[in-house]
C-alpha cells in the first residue's frame, strides 16, 4: 500500500474557507474511497483546524506544512474551491515526488478555476505535474488517468487539437504595422498592485514585455482609493443616472451588510471616474485593478467599474478643461490585474479597430459546463463566468439587458454591485497568453456564444454565482477534456466578431500579430 499525501490550498478570506469547507471535505472523502479501492492510503498533509476548515490559508502556513512533508512521496493537491496558488507554490517548487492537481467537476465555488490557476502557475514555474478532474470520481476517464499516475507519475492527455500557427493571414502587413508601432511608440499598462489572489501565472516579467514595446506603470491602489474619495457626489450621480437612462437595473436594498445600496453604487461610480482620470494622467493604454485584497476593506467592489471601462458605450468622464477622455472608445481593463489578459486585450483592441470588428473584450473564468439539460443545444456547452462584470455590449440587450446585484458578502464585505448579463449569441474568438519555459505563448480558437432556455440559464446561474455574468459557449473542434488538458490559466479571453468569416480573419490577424511580436502561437481546434 502506497501512502499518498494530500494538501488543500484555500482562500486568504477566512469567511470563504469556512463556507466552502464542507464541499472540499466531501471531495477528499470520495477521493480517499477511490484510492483505498485501488490499494492506496490517502493521508492529509495538514490537519483540519479548530476554526472549522482544513485549508492552507497563507503562504507562510504552506511553507511550514511542506517543510514537514516527505518531499519524495506522491502528492495530490485536491481542490473543490477557488484557491490562492501562492499558498502552495513555494512547497511544490521543491517537491521531488510526482504531483497531481485534481478538482471536482462543479460550478459551485469552483475547484476547476482553482485547478487551472495552479496549473498555469506550475507551468510558468517549470514544475512538472499531472492533472485530473471528475464529476463523481467513478468515470473511466478519471479512473484510467488516476491509475496511470499511480503507476508512472504522469498522465497522457489528448492535445491533438493544438497545431502551431505557421502563417497564412491575409493581414500580415497590418500585423507588422501594429507590432512596429508598439516597438517604436511603445505603450503602458497601468497596474494597480500586482499579483492578485496569488495568480503567479498572471504576472509577465518586464523583460519579456519590454522588447514588445510594452511597459508597466506600477500604480498603488491607495492612489485609486484617494482619487475615488475626491470625486464629488454630483459626478458620481451623473454616471449612475447615465446607466439608469440606458435601462440598466440595480437591485437595491437597505442593509449594506447584505444588500446593494445606492451609496455603494455611487462609490463605484466615483471609482470609475477616478480610474479613467488616473489612466489618462499616466498615459496608459490599459489598466488593471487588483481590488480583492486591500481595497475590499475600504471600498465597494471594482467590478461595475471594470465592466463600464471595457465598453465603447460608457459614461463620459471629463478632464479639468472639459474635454472628454477617450470619448466613444472602450478602455481596456484587465480584470484581477491579469497581465496576460492585458497584453491580449491591447492586441484585440488594435486589431479589431483596424478590421472594423467589435472591440469589447473581457476575460472570463473557465468556470464549468455540461450538456444543455433542456435539449436546446447539442453537445457540450461551457459556462464562462467572470467574478463580477462583463462589458454590456456582450449581453443580450446591451445596457438594458444588464443588471447589478450585490457581490457576495463572504468575498466582498464592503458590498458593491456587479455588471451581470447573459452573453448574446454570436461568433467568438477565444484566446489565452501564458508563460512556459521563460517565454510567452498564445493559444487561439473559435467558437460561438449560444442562447439557452430561460430554465437552463437559471439552472446554470444558480449552480455558480447568480450575481455574475455568464457566456454559454460552444468551442470549435475542442472537447471538454482537451480544453482542460491544454489550458494554462483560470482565465480565458473572449471577443465577438460580426460573422464567422470575419471572426476567422480576425483570429488569424491576431495570430500573425502575436508571431510578429515574438510569441509562440498555436491554433486550437481550427
Describe the protein.
By secondary structure, this protein is α/β, with parallel strands linked by helices. It folds into two domains: 2-152, Rossmann fold; 172-524, L-fucose Isomerase, Chain A, domain 3. The protein is built from 15 helices and 19 strands. It has a six-stranded antiparallel β-barrel. Strands 2-1-3-4-5 form a five-stranded parallel sheet. α6 crosses α15, α10 (262-281) crosses α11 (303-309) and α12 (339-355) packs across α15. It is globular, with a radius of gyration of 22 Å.
Distance between the termini: 45 Å
Parts with pLDDT < 50 across at least 5 consecutive residues: none
Mean pLDDT: 97
CATH architecture assignment name of the largest domain: Alpha-Beta Barrel
How are the strands of the biggest sheet laid out side by side? Answer: 12-13-17-16-15-18
CATH class of the largest domain, named Alpha Beta
Please bin the fraction of helical residues.
Answer: 25-40%
Helical stretch tally: 15
Could you name the CATH topology of the largest domain? L-fucose Isomerase, Chain A, domain 3
Major sheet description = 6 strands, antiparallel, barrel
The overall number of domains is 2
Strand element count:
19
Q: In terms of quaternary structure, what is this?
A: single chain
CATH superfamily label of the largest domain = L-fucose/L-arabinose isomerase, C-terminal
Envelope shape: globular
Radius of gyration: 22 Å
> By helix and strand content, what is the structural category?
alpha/beta
